[in-house]
Structure formats: C-alpha cells, structure tokens
Specification:
The protein has 305 residues and is of the alpha+beta class. The chain has eight helices and twelve strands. The radius of gyration is 18 Å and the shape is globular.
C-alpha cells in the first residue's frame, strides 16, 4: 500500500465514527495528472477559524493552516483519491509540507450532534481490555472480508492509548491498522472535544511511520480548539438539553456502533484502499443485512463506561 493509498484509506477511517458507512463500491477517481496545479489552487486560511456553524473556534498558530469544506473535498478526492461525497467541516494541515507530498497529512474535522456525552466513569475504563474486544471483532469479520475478495485487516494496537482530560473535556488516542501484507500501516489519530450538544471530531490522516510529527502536532492542536460560549460542555442544562445515547467509551469504538448495537461488527466495513465509499446510515443497514444476514447483532455492553 502506497502512502497515498494509506491516506485514502485513513480519510475514510476518519469518517467512520460519525457514519460508519463503508461498503463495497467502485474504484475511486484517479489522482490528477498535475498535482502541482491542484496544490497551487488550494486556498488556505490561517489564524482564527469558526466551524460547526459558529459552535467552535480554532485559534491556529503559524504551524497550522485550514481548508474549508469545499477545498477539503478537492484535496480528499482529487489529491488523495477518495471517492466524492464525504461531508466535513474542513481540514487542518501542517503549514510545512505540501499535502500532496509523501510527508503530507491532514486532520479531517466533523461534528456529531448526538447530544451531551456523559463522561462519568471515564477513569474506570480499561482501554487495553477494550482493545482486546476490538481486535476480536476485527478477526471475526476478516472471514467475511476475505470471502468478498478483500484483504484481511489487523488492528495492531494503540499507537497512542486513549486519554481523557476531565478538566478540558477532551479525549485523544491513536490506532495502528494494517491491511493485508502492506508494508505501510495506517495511522488513525483521534481527538474528541465534548460540547453541550455534541462532539467535535478531529481525525488525522497519515501513515503510522508519521506518528512522531503527527503526535506533536495533534498535541499542539488540542488547546487550539474550543467550543464557543453557549455550546461548551459546562453549558449543559440537565432536564432540558438532549443526552447522547452512548457514554464516553463509545467515542473510542465508534458512536454508531453504540447506538445500534453493532459492537461486534464495528470494524467490519473497513476494507482495502480503492474498494469503498462513505454512505449514510440507511446504506449501511442494507449492507449489513446482506453481509451479516445469518449473524445476530451483539449489543454494545462492553463499551459502556
């Protein structure tokens, strides 16, 4: 798997927590013949950036730059070969390397307005035990992936163990994922910022050998993003505001899995690069009925804090 293929794969992995929508699909569009032209046409923003309809703010230092949703779509599809259609709030990229270079990577931004996520019991979660359950799930579903003609997937482990800061209501972790015999593992580095009505989702798109610079940058990005007054975690009004249907542990394994009881098939849709597309929840349901019609969907009890 090339770096571009890994970035293409990782971009889709990043979208999974809010849609979990990966299914068998056509080959994505090819990379443009003139990447230098695309690179020159991308329009970056710097400094203070508002996202999620003004709910949150990024105060970017000189080490970062921002692409709005339209510009991000061009990078993800034309530059990195992802299928079109993924909805994002834009991307944060390091100011140094070109995103089209081998060293290039970026952070996909989305927002899950599922309600207030109760962080009670966050300190009691055994993330190593949780990782073991996730690995079992991946191993079980490799049988179906192989039957369908796709490479098996391996959840190698935590590239960065989950950590939750109760004072800032921010959580981060990273997963090392391997597809088939690929010499390049995929890095899925995650940040979640809890708010009054939902969660701001930041996912780094990179290869695992970029963990060092990605980790440094993501730690710099942590204090740079905040919900605005009225939308902060502390602004929650009990009895009036909506509560999320899942706890904080579900942020690590995937929120849709928690809501629909799909813990055992959580990672079933993660296929080899060039073989998938992001779809809505309805499309996911149809695919699951086809692939897992003989399986009973397990509950998500293991991820409750």
């Amino acid at each position: 798997m090339s770096r571009k293929s890994a970035r293409s794969l990782s971009a889709l992995l990043c979208a999974m927590p809010f849609a979990l929508g990966t299914v068998f699909a056509q080959e994505p569009p090819t990379t443009p013949t003139d990447p230098a032209k695309l690179d020159a046409e991308l329009r970056y923003q710097t400094g203070t950036v508002q996202v999620a309809g003004g709910k949150a703010t990024f105060n970017l230092g000189p080490e970062f730059r921002y692409l709005d949703p339209k510009q991000s779509a061009r990078l993800l599809t034309e530059g990195w070969g992802n299928p079109p259609g993924a909805e994002t709030l834009g991307m944060i990229l390091p100011a140094g390397p070109s995103p089209l270079s081998a060293e290039g990577w970026g952070v996909v931004i989305t927002y899950e307005e599922d309600g207030y996520v109760d962080d009670k019991g966050a300190e009691k979660i055994d993330y190593n035990e949780l990782l073991g359950e996730m690995k079992k799930s991946v191993t079980e579903e490799n049988k179906e992936r192989t039957k369908a003609g796709y490479e098996p997937m391996q959840l190698v482990g935590w590239a960065e163990p989950p950590r939750y800061d109760k004072a800032t209501n921010k959580m981060y972790w990273a997963k090392d994922i391997k597809f088939g015999d690929s010499p390049v593992d995929t890095l899925n580095y995650n940040i979640r910022v809890l708010g009054r009505r939902g969660v701001l989702v930041l996912n780094a798109v990179a290869t695992v050998d970029q963990l060092g610079p990605v980790k440094t940058s993501m730690q710099q990005l942590l204090p740079a993003v905040e919900f605005n007054p009225g939308h902060r975690y502390a602004d929650f009004i009990p009895g009036k505001d909506k509560m999320a249907e899942y706890g904080i542990g579900a942020l690590v394994v995937g929120t849709l899995a928690a809501k629909t009881g799909l813990f055992k098939v959580l990672l079933a849709g993660l296929l080899a690069a060039k073989k998938f597309v992001i779809v809505g929840i309805a499309g996911l349901g149809a695919w699951l009925r086809k692939v897992f019609k003989k399986k009973e969907l397990a509950t998500a009890e293991a991820i409750e804090p």
